[in-house]
């Protein structure tokens, strides 16, 4: 361990004060919480919406040739009714309603499992959601063979955010 008093200044040139806050704000899209943070500040900061993300217009997002009826939870591919389990159809409907915005594992659990045999979050809920998504991807791939392979999986994982239904606008534009 070094006892050099100037080591911190060389290793961490902005080791505190306003310079460090400015650097953090500039490099992290305005996300900075000074520590120690009081109470629920870090949780609130993490949950707060971030600026700068363009909003998607309804006509910029489509899942055609998938046709999804949210009321009946029927999913069709080019007019053919897909053979999905009730849970798989419910997941597709929730992802469809989000219109490309990622839904976290916890949010999918809350919307697709809670009140449907579950009244709590079990310890392994994330694994259960992941396995359901895995089965759904296989089912969609098997039943939607007329969608080119480069568009599969139709349910994509957005790193550190959750799952989303793939935007198939480019596919529908080429047909």
From TrEMBL:
GO biological process terms held by the UniProt record: phosphorelay signal transduction system; regulation of DNA-templated transcription
Keyword DNA-binding: yes
Coiled-coil region(s): none
DNA-binding region: 58-167
Keywords annotated in UniProt: DNA-binding
Domain OmpR/PhoB-type: start-end pairs: 58-167
Pfam families: Trans_reg_C
Entries under SUPFAM superfamilies matching the protein: C-terminal effector domain of the bipartite response regulators (SSF46894)
Alphabetized GO MF terms: DNA binding
Name the UniProt record assigns to this protein: OmpR/PhoB-type domain-containing protein
Annotated source species: Sphingomonas turrisvirgatae
